[in-house]
Design goal:
Chain lengths: ~200, ~200, ~200, ~200
Amino acid sequence: MSVQTKSARASILDAAATAFAEYGVDQTSIDDISRTMNASKGKIYHHFGSKGELICAIVKHSVQLTLDRVGPYFYSDATPSKKLHEMAQAHVTAMISELAYHRVVIEEMRGSKTDKVTVNERMLRSEITALQTDYENMFRKALEAGIKLGQFRKQDLSVTIPSLLMILHAPIYWYEPRGGENISLIAAQLADMAVGAVSL
Amino acid sequence: MSVQTKSARASILDAAATAFAEYGVDQTSIDDISRTMNASKGKIYHHFGSKGELICAIVKHSVQLTLDRVGPYFYSDATPSKKLHEMAQAHVTAMISELAYHRVVIEEMRGSKTDKVTVNERMLRSEITALQTDYENMFRKALEAGIKLGQFRKQDLSVTIPSLLMILHAPIYWYEPRGGENISLIAAQLADMAVGAVSL
Amino acid sequence: MSVQTKSARASILDAAATAFAEYGVDQTSIDDISRTMNASKGKIYHHFGSKGELICAIVKHSVQLTLDRVGPYFYSDATPSKKLHEMAQAHVTAMISELAYHRVVIEEMRGSKTDKVTVNERMLRSEITALQTDYENMFRKALEAGIKLGQFRKQDLSVTIPSLLMILHAPIYWYEPRGGENISLIAAQLADMAVGAVSL
Amino acid sequence: MSVQTKSARASILDAAATAFAEYGVDQTSIDDISRTMNASKGKIYHHFGSKGELICAIVKHSVQLTLDRVGPYFYSDATPSKKLHEMAQAHVTAMISELAYHRVVIEEMRGSKTDKVTVNERMLRSEITALQTDYENMFRKALEAGIKLGQFRKQDLSVTIPSLLMILHAPIYWYEPRGGENISLIAAQLADMAVGAVSL
DNA sequence: AATGAATGAGTCTTCATTCAT
DNA sequence: GATGAATGAAGACTCATTCAT
């Protein structure tokens, strides 16, 4: 509603996320991003110290968005089964709603990176790791509660959790935003699968 | 046929897959690969027309390996549930057994590639797509059979199949070849999850 | 005239000289300087039209400081030998006392500079050249007087003068301001060397 | 006499030294160098891993050349005074004969360098330091011998040596290769100054 | 006076690819 | 078959400078 629609920083973040999601992080140059924004490379470097920091900012935003959507369901009083189902649905909805941001995360999951990292980047990375740990812990607790109640199979959670999250990440790979798609149908089916995957 | 333990081609393929898996396809130069082989860049270009062809060869090999491991279970007489379980186990075993090759595939799933592609590469790519389609069809048929028999939930298979495969791909992201790990335990648990995800 | 301890201009000059001396003129950005001052880049550009002008101001200050220290001894009535010794001592003392400023001068002795120069900068440069010529002439006259009196060897002064000044500049390269160093000892020894270098 | 006048490596070294000497190390880009050679930037990077390594190679060559010229006089049986005079003359001759290479050394004497250094570069640097230490030790021993014999003043050699070398380096700053200049005259005068600077 | 955003030209470096030997 | 030299295009990053506020 203000005169400037969005802060420069946010615009860059959006443009970068979109480009990275479309062509891949490594295949997208800072020049590419600045070109799509009709801005100079310098502008990007004024706001982000390096390509790595830009990527981290996107990843952090993605994780934060997911946490914001899923968190409320974790803190509800539902039974483990229902809670997991709701969390899963929220996760899938997040994936689809801000597709570009979350696609970048997946690409960075390998995260090896021989490149030199800025000090800022290292800080961002540890913040991200903390958020991700928090996030995984929500699923861990939900699963543990379900196991204790006999709703879920006894299982090695260090295997279960990442695999469960893979199901919920799946739309990242194939979802194409068209007009007619019904997001909640997809979310529902994937949540069914997720719950089924761990239930007795 | 030759006296050598392994053909030059296979050695290159192995070295490339290992390097690509470790550092990422885009972060690994042809020079890097040749260096790990104590060979020259030229040698690689003798056997593969371009970096793209090299990648495709790795991907094709990966798909073929998976097909070889999973196929026999598809062609068995087991009930859909058991068949899916066996196929899933075989898939996970493949992932872990030739980790490097399969990791490359994941990275190339985006596959956009703005770069110019060789004629050879285009051919390889369509062969790969054909193999992958065959592979997915095995799962499709197994699932359809299970749905018909009422063992599996009615569901949108175009959502189910890629999501199911995501579970089975999961170890690619976190498996680290250490001494003591029990591959079959992991395969069993993931197969359980896969079957659970689609069952009533 | 103002209440401030030091004018903004002088603060910038000090910070710049220090940074230039430490990291080298070309390796120090205007940003680096402003950062060490906890000020903005713009502030520097308010007081100095360009990086070149800033450098020139430092150089001019350095030359002026040296002239101020050495001049009085030139205008004394001492014998050429004694006069040269005193001038040399004063020069070395200057070098060590305002190390940073004089280090910048050395770096700029090449002074080629392909870059475009401001009008201001051109003016500053000719003022500097004039001061430097004055300075060298003091040594020239002292040496000529000594030669005439038979205290100094007959020699090509266009070779002698710059070489003599090199001895006196030497501390710039290796002097490190520590606690216990005795500046006057160093100055005395170098002055001995300078006089010895030209004497019969 | 062979068909190729000079190795690619040596050509690059020469072109780089010339350009660095003329415009300064920081003001000369790798592009500049390759342009003067009618070659591609890539060629330079094929032979030298980084700009830093290229500079080091030049410096090392410079030090080696000087050592080769001065060494023989150090190992002669002359009296300290005569020996120092001969060494000084040889040093000056070296400076003037391969002016470009030695000019680069002077610029690098500050040597701070915030830039990241290659492993190769670090190795080169320590080799250079070793050579330079050897070189300074030749002067140190010659001076100590002269002091013991009462030909040279008692003095702080850690001050004397670098200052003495500054005199001998001086031509680097002002020598311009013209037709008629008499190198040996300059060398003789500077050697006189050097010996005078340390003698009783 | 001072600030912070923005620019654009330039710099070092990398790398897939080609080619003569 | 294999090698090492060479190329050219691109990419990440820097920085002096300008300008609106």
